[in-house]
Amino acid sequence: MNAPLRRVGVVVLVLFGLLFANLNWVQAYKAEEYSTSPYNGRVQVDEYNRQRGNIEAGGTAYATSKATDGDLKYLRTYPAGPLYAHVLGYKPVNGEAVGIEQSENKFLAGTSDQLFADRVRDVFTGDSTGGGNVLLSISKRAQDAAAKQLANNRVDATKGAAIAIDPRTGAVQALVSMPSFDPNPLVSHNSKQAEAAFDELEADPNRPLANRALSEVLPPGSTFKVIDTAVALENGYTKQTRIPAGSSWTPPTSGRPIKNATPSICPESEVTLIEAVTDSCNTGFAQLGVELGADKIKQKAQAFGFEQEDLTVGRLDNGGIPVAASRTGTMQNPDGSTDPAALAQSSIGQNNVRMTPLQGALIAATVANGGTQMRPYVVEKLIGPDRTTTHYTADPKQLRQPISGQVATDLRDMMISVVENGSGRNARISGFTVGGKTGTAEQGEGRPEHGWFIGFLMKDGQPISAVCVVLESAGSGGSGEAARITGQIMRAVIQDKGIK
């Protein structure tokens, strides 16, 4: 054989070798990716041959599948439209699912290992058993109240969120983000229509697709004072300890004075700690934060959940909807030393402190639950297609213990004082114990403030609900309105549970 033929033979052998290697790569490593790709037409047809399971709350299905005459035999539908959109998410024909539709996709689609027995049975019966069903912890009344009150708020806010959780278990009772969206057009079998609907929502400057309850991080304003107070109580302060206050205070190294919301708030040179919490005394907490130090403030915030990167809300043992990390931000000079001005602003929830509404609800829940913070979840049960087999039941889990029982008791008393005697009066409910903390967070000169409220509901010493409401760019009266909305959500929880 001459040299040119040998070279051609070698090239052919190399090409065959590469082809063989690629085939093995596809079979061994890429098969799963290709077989499950939402862009694989055969996978789509096969997936839609089986009826997808329901997502339900309180006995009502809010994500269902109905039969069609097309190649894709079932169409995903969301009967409540925008009401549950940020909890359920959506499952498009082309593209990735989001929300609970994504985190429980295999169980809903019937391809989960948990439903293996059902698929084996189908081989012998010739049936095509549907997917499993997901039952949520959401309270219908609380969800309805949260959505209605946010949409009809009295300060004309167009963006905000509300989330309620059971302090004893971590079960999510309500989760609403404003503005919301209708997921039905996004799951149309007409791919052009679905894509156009998504593009329109994606281009909306109000970001309706964003899950503000879990992913939006905003300056929390005075709600952060609960963390400052916890640090103080752990370092020898009591409810009656007097702290420096005054109508104005300028931190060292800063020419910008810190003032209170109105001149009538703590104009005295000193107030008790419980008075500072009740009246939301900025000058008192700014000075208290500097006295306690940045390290202690940061460490306590982290103990409550700030900086956590991997929290999800779904099933307790298997992922869910991702939660953005809340941040304490920087309180240091470039050389690493503490910047008193930054620390003072951070201590009143300004500077670059950022918090999600879920984190706010967790703070209130921890106080109500004696210092124990439970891991939040929204998936209560997974039941089989025939509804006779339960494959999963939520078993509440402790997430962390940020504070002792005594500190929680003292914080509870002070937060109750906020509702009974201070800025949280709009959240009061006759016959029940309600505690909370308002927050007004500045965005910068010329921009309206965010209004916050975090609070808890108790009866006979037992926690029932913890709620956080935020109204973005609400301006004057925003925190009071957030407190009122919180009270309405709590009333709905009471009604749903039949508590008297």
Q: How confident is the prediction overall: mean pLDDT?
A: 92
Instruction: List low-pLDDT spans.
Output: none
CATH superfamily grouping of one domain: DD-peptidase/beta-lactamase superfamily
Strand sequence of the main sheet, in spatial order? Answer: 3-2-1-4-14-15
β-strand percent reads: 15-25%
Per the principal axes of the C-alpha atoms, what is the gross shape? Answer: globular
Major β-sheet annotation: 6 strands, mixed
Query: What is the terminal separation in angstroms?
Result: 98 Å
User: What class, by secondary structure content?
Assistant: alpha+beta
Per DSSP E runs of 2 or more residues, the count of β-strands stands at 19
Question: What fold name goes in the CATH topology slot of one domain?
Answer: Beta-lactamase
Tally of helical runs? 17
In helices, the fraction of residues equals: 25-40%
Using only C-alpha atoms, the radius of gyration works out to 27 Å
Main CATH class of one domain: Alpha Beta
CATH second-level architecture of one domain? 3-Layer(aba) Sandwich
Description of the molecule:
The protein has 500 residues and is α+β, with helices and mostly antiparallel strands. Helix content is 38%, strand content 19%. It has 17 helices and 19 strands. Helix 7 (140-151) packs antiparallel against helix 17 (478-497) and helix 10 (225-234) packs across helix 13.
